[in-house]
Known about the structure:
single chain, 5-stranded antiparallel β-sheet
Amino acid sequence: MFCITTKYLGPTNIRGSRIVAKCRLGKRAIPYDSALSPRANHHRAAAELAYEHGWVGYSDLDTCAFAHGELPSEDGYAFLVPAN
């Protein structure tokens, strides 16, 4: 089982808003999609990082069901990804 944490980063003078997903093997940032809910944006970032490491297939990006919860600091989420 792998844990992925996500965090919202607000816009800067150079970059727009984004979600950063991190795990012990690396990290990935994706642009914030205002058409999605905040939780859906965090889920998408976690799913893309899981796909990058081969933990889920491409067709599973929108439908993968990770166990998840909000971090105690209330600035992101933690997702548990089952190992293949």
